[in-house]
Structure formats: C-alpha cells, structure tokens
Amino acid sequence: MKQTALFSENNFNWLAQFDSATLLAKMLELCDSAAVYSVNKDQEILYWNRGMEKLSGLRREDVVGKSCRQEYVMTEASSNQEQLIKIGRTDGSKIEVKKVIQVLPDKEGAFAGGIGWLRILSEPAANDLLPKVSVEINKPAMGSRNFHGLLSRAPAMRDVFQIIENAAETEANVLVRGESGAGKELVAKAIHTLSARHNAPFLAINCAALSANLLESELFGHVRGAFTGAVKDHKGLFQRAQGGTLFLDEVAELPLELQAKLLRVIQERNYIPVGGDRSIDADVRIVAATHRSLREEVKSGHFREDLMYRLRVVPIFIPPLRERREDIGLLIWHFISRHNAENFRKIEKIEPQAMRILLDYPWPGNIRELHNVVEYAFAVGRGPTLRLSELPPEFRETRPTADQPLQSTSSRQASPLSTEQETAAIRLALEQSNGKVTSAASSLGMSRATFWRKRKLYGI
C-alpha cells in the first residue's frame, strides 16, 4: 500500500519561499509548553526553551553556547530515535523522560546538529516540576507573547513586534528609541536573529560609556604605534562584526568628530583605523538606540542631521512600561518564575496591598527596574508570599491612599483605579488564584457579584 507523503510538491514549493532559519525560529516559538532544545554538530546548545528550563532547572542563559551534558547529546546514529533517559535536575533529583530526536543534515548530508524533545514519563516526577502553588506562575498569561525575549500582551507592543519582523527582512539601518530599561538591546538582538545576518556576530557598545579617543579606537580599531600604549594592532567593532550587526546604544552621546567618521562608514562602506593609512571594507548593519529625540539633538547642534537620516531609516519606538500597564503583572510573575527556578525561595503569591502598589507605580526605570525589585524581594524576604515589607524603601514609603486601592462597592469614599489598571488587577487576581473567582474577588476587596459584573464589563 503506497504511503501518503507528508508534503506534496506544492507544499514544498510553498515552504521554499521562506528563509529556513526564520521558519525554524517561528516554529520553535510555538513549543514553549513542551521541553525542546537543539544542538550543533559540536554538541553545543543552540536553543533551550522555557519547557527545558522548567524540566531541568537550568536557565537558557546558563546553557546556550556551552557543551551539553551527555544525556542531551545527539549523533547521526541516533537519528529519529526514541530513548528513555534519566536527567539530573539542579535540585539534585533525577527524572525519567522520553527523548525524541530529529537529526538535521547540512547541504552535503553530513550531521549538522539536531532538535530534541523531552516528555516526562512518571506522573509524580511531573508534579514535582510545578511549584506547590497554582500553576499560573509558570503559565503564560492569556494573550501574552514572548517575542525573542520581549514579553508583552499590550496591543502597542504587537505593532513593535511587526515592525521588527518587517525591518529584519531588509538591510535598512534601524533607530530604536525608548527610555532606559525598556528593552532596546533586546529589540536589536531580535532584528539580528531574524535577519539574514543571524549567523554572523552581533556586537554592542554604549557610546556614552567611553571617552572620545577610546570610543574611536573601540569602533574603528587602531594600528601599532598610533598613540602611547598602542603596542599592537587592534581590531575595532566594525571589523569584528563583519557580516553581522553592530548595536550602538545611546548613539546621541556620540561626539561630533566621530559622527563624521560614522557617516563615512555608512555612505562609503569603508573606514580607516586610528593611525592607519589604508581603508578597510565594512559590511555591517547598524542598529542604533537612544532615549533622546535625535531631531531635538539636531536642533541644538549636538547631532548631525545627515547622520540622523542615515541611522533613522526605520524608527522603532518602545512604549515605556507605564503606558502598557497590562504588562506589569505579566512581567512580575515572569521574573518571579525565573527566580523560583533557582530553588532559593519560591514565591507563590503576592500580598494584595503589595500588588496594588506595584501596579500603581510609574516604573521610571521600566523593565530593568521591575526586575531589580523582584530580585530585591527574593534577597530580603522569606516564605511563599511577597509582602509589602519586602519591597524597596521607596515602595514602602508610598502607602496606599484613597485613590490607589481597588475598592469594593461598599467603600464609597475611594476613587477607583483607571479602567486599564482595574482590568490588569482583575486579570492578575484571576491568575494568582488559579481562576478561583471567590479568592480573586476577596484579594481585591470585592464581592463575588461585583467581581463578576466587572469581568463582564471589561470582557475578561
């Protein structure tokens, strides 16, 4: 009996129009609920999703780029096999899993790496993976998306993600504008990862961190004897990032004399190292970032207008966290989940008063500040509940006033939160109570009837 092919010829023609790396990245994005990882031919880990983090207790930033343990190794001989293995977790326990492997050949058919999928076999071990609390701590919230490390459910960020995807398909320079801590470097990395340059280097530099002389040497390199202390040739970032992407953070701080040299690199695709006498070709895509308006910097005479237009081919603006308040709770639980995996302290719920203050805080330091607050709570507090007393001093000094808490209908003196804040608070209460309406309503000081009415009103 003839076996039906998985893909018809037309199907393959349709798939052929996509860049294989982009297609694979998008498919892997769908697999966070499962434990999926990938290795290259040298058994170095290339991809480690959230499912693998929960299963093993190992964070992706601690394993990606490093040699994998023996239990995760893939070889050409193990192609498409199912194996029963035991893996060690960071808490010292071991768990039996089924490992399914799909080996990936290169264009010549040689082993180039593979993708692995792990499934827990024993139910008790599976339960051990979950915190002794409602499972929503490690479960993505409804409508949320983790876009190359940018976690959000705000409509404004969906537009940002789309621009990133579209811009990545081109060679255009990109200017990312956003406040400190909003995630500008993550945007740059996402553009690089989704681009045709993803196999080449991604390098970054903060233009405000170095003096003009050091910055020039770091960007363009120098030759031996160019200045006192230049005892050998030094390759600059433009040379080291050849074929890849260079991220220029705080580009508005670039000195005017270096702005002229950067403009030449963009226009002529070459540059001369400090002290050198010959030009070097530059094939580098630039993604720049700033928290200032370059147009205002041009008006004040601090930035070249011609350079601004060269850098600002595709502008991307990242809204501050205070303008996407529906992401506050999502990010709080995301960072709590990450620290819970370290097995030092496990936070299972947040004191309602503490949550109200976190939701109402303006977050001038954006996501970086929010992460720092979660780290602070893990460091100074103990037990399964994050309490108001475990927040940094500036939070404890801001006591809830009449217009801050989400009040029940019996409290007529208090002004309610904004619709956006109230919607976020209700979503969080439901997530924190694992969908139990009575508990969620109680945590917000509402009656069950009022809670149901507001859910219907906001379409939650």
Automatic annotation (TrEMBL):
GO terms for biological process: regulation of DNA-templated transcription. The keyword Cell wall biogenesis/degradation does not apply. GO terms for molecular function: ATP binding; sequence-specific DNA binding. Residues 390-418 are annotated as: Disordered. Pfam families: AAA_lid_14, HTH_8, PAS, Sigma54_activat. Residues 20-76 form the PAS domain. Residues 150-379 form the Sigma-54 factor interaction domain. The keyword Transcription applies. This is PAS modulated sigma54 specific transcriptional regulator, Fis family. It comes from Candidatus Methylobacter favarea.
